[in-house]
TrEMBL record:
It is found in: Cell projection, Microvillus membrane. This is Cystine/glutamate transporter. It is a multi-pass membrane protein. It comes from Seriola lalandi dorsalis. The lineage of its organism: Eukaryota, Metazoa, Chordata, Craniata, Vertebrata. The keyword Transmembrane applies. GO terms for biological process: L-cystine transport; L-glutamate transmembrane transport; regulation of programmed cell death. InterPro entries: AA/rel_permease1, AminoAcid_Transporter. It comes from the Eukaryota. Belongs to the amino acid-polyamine-organocation (APC) superfamily. L-type amino acid transporter (LAT) (TC 2.A.3.8) family. The chain crosses the membrane at residues 46-64, 76-98, 132-151, 163-180, 192-214, 234-254, 266-291, 317-343, 364-382, 394-412, 424-444, 450-470. Residues 15-26 have a biased composition (Polar residues).
């Protein structure tokens, strides 16, 4: 790990020197005395970019519980329309982020774009909510799903002890942290492998399901658009569930600086990934309905397992393993991307300087990778994770909507900013309105939990003035933040 100190060069620029003779230029890239870069390299190719997006979007949800959309949409036909519509809306958001990623070529995702459009205070509030609650809780939830399903084949048909689930989860989290600390290349390679594994698992559902459909198993589709059970009041909740299932399309923007030829790679990876994910989600649901009636699907706790039991017999024991691998891929992709946000925030002076240090030999942002570990483990063993996620679910869409609003704002305040990839204005406008509608829906449907989440995020305002804004900080705080 490099230890950095700063000085002013004779050219007037501020440079940062490490203990072993490396220095950084004003852009934050480390170099040694021979002018060789020590910073994060451009190791994210098109294939790796696609694997990051697909690998983080497709988690456990499509295998376990797609019934939220069916429940609120009221019919098979309407549920499939919601899946397609949510895919298109998510593509709109992803294309908006593609424009931002090609004109603002910094890593950090939401944080960086809010910083560029609305300034450091708003960016810090987003960072604060991410650091103290949203990301540790999100990591803990997907990790718990991994722990549950990796143990399922060992305990079938018995109940898995909660302690065993938490221990398996802790091992999974630790292994992901270790992998991301050791090698960017191996992290990316394993992400590609896990992405192909989950696509293979989906293929095991889609192919037999479509075979049943071509054989004439269409009885569940005969009254697919029957409107007796469709209630307009439930449709927003169906869209809310669908948009949550597609969440993750923004993670490539967290690692923009490490993407090869970002002007081409970012938009292409996003378009290919969203096409694949939308097709997989829709075809998987079609496959489920060839075997299960709407009533059977709503009664199932793990839809993919029920599907496999009906169609494949003993092979159904492999489904939990595929679900566990899918969760592991989501954990890996999320941590890889999020560590870059903390790395960039440190570089901007909003987190302790140690988080922007890069391991000299491994070229990984070691401290930025490990920062989530203690909070995630704490949430895992003592926190009420699911309640916290309920508090924070609306904040995700509030800040994503704010980012896309920032894109529209930058179109007018910085019209000369180079935009190698530019989307028609109606795309960010529609997506921005969708995000703010979902925020309003959260406020209307669950004002108490939403209010608590809002209050938690507002604690970022005094934190900003204490840790960032005031020049005269206590000495212990100056030492902690590297000032």
């Amino acid at each position: 790990m490099t230890k950095r100190s700063t000085s002013t060069h004779k050219d007037g620029n501020r440079h940062t020197f490490s203990q072993n003779g490396t220095q950084s230029d004003p852009t934050g890239k480390l170099q040694d005395e021979d002018d060789r870069k020590v910073g994060l390299g451009k190791k994210v190719t098109l294939l790796r970019g696609i694997s990051i997006i697909i690998g983080t979007i497709i988690g456990a949800g499509i295998f376990i519980s797609p019934k939220g959309i069916l429940k609120h949409s009221g019919s098979i036909g309407m549920s499939l329309i919601v899946w397609i519509a949510c895919g298109v809306l998510s593509l709109f958001g992803a294309l908006s982020y593609a424009e931002l990623g090609t004109c603002i070529k910094k890593s950090g995702g939401h944080y960086t774009y809010i910083m560029e459009a609305f300034g450091p205070q708003m960016a810090f509030i987003r960072l604060w909510a991410d650091l103290i609650a949203i990301r540790p809780a999100g990591m803990a939830v997907i990790s718990l799903a991994f722990g549950q399903y990796i143990l399922e084949p060992l305990f079938m048909p018995c109940h898995i002890p909660p302690v065993a689930v938490k221990l398996a989860t802790a091992i999974g989290i630790t292994s992901i942290m270790y992998l991301n600390s050791m090698s960017v290349t191996w992290t990316a390679r394993i992400q590609i492998f896990l992405t192909f594994s989950k696509l293979l698992a989906i293929a095991f559902i889609i192919v037999p399901g479509l075979y049943q459909l071509f054989k004439g198993e269409t009885r569940n589709f005969e009254n697919a658009f029957e409107l007796n059970n469709v209630q307009l009041s439930g449709m927003p909740l169906a869209f809310y569930s669908g948009m949550y299932a597609y969440a993750g399309w923004f993670y490539l923007n967290f690692v923009t600086e490490e993407v090869e030829n970002p002007e081409r790679t970012v938009p292409l990876a996003i378009c290919i990934s969203m096409g694949i994910v939308t097709s997989c989600y829709v075809l998987t649901n079609v496959a489920y309905y060839t075997v299960m009636s709407p009533e059977e699907l709503l009664a199932s706790d793990a839809v993919a397992v029920t599907f496999a039991e009906k169609l494949m017999g003993n092979f159904s024991v492999a489904v939990p393993v595929f679900v566990a691998l899918s969760c592991y891929g989501s954990m890996n992709g999320c941590l890889f991307a999020l560590s870059r946000m903390f790395y960039v925030a440190s570089r901007e002076g909003q987190l302790p300087e140690v988080l922007s240090m890069i391991h000299v030999r491994r070229n990984t942002p070691l401290a930025a990778v490990l920062i989530l570990y203690p909070m995630t483990m704490l949430q895992l063993f003592v926190g009420d994770i699911y309640s916290l996620l309920n508090f924070m679910s609306f904040l995700r869409w509030l800040f994503i909507g704010l980012v896309v609003l920032g894109l529209i704002y930058l179109r007018y305040t910085k019209p000369d900013l180079p935009r190698p990839f530019k989307v028609p204005l109606f795309i960010p406008v529609i997506f921005c309105l969708t995000c703010f509608f979902m925020v309003f829906l959260s406020l209307y449907s669950d004002p108490v939990n939403t209010g608590i989440g809002f209050v938690i995020s507002l604690t970022g305002i005094p934190a900003y003035y204490i840790f960032i804004y005031f020049d005269h900080k206590p000495k212990w705080l100056q030492r902690a933040s590297g000032d």
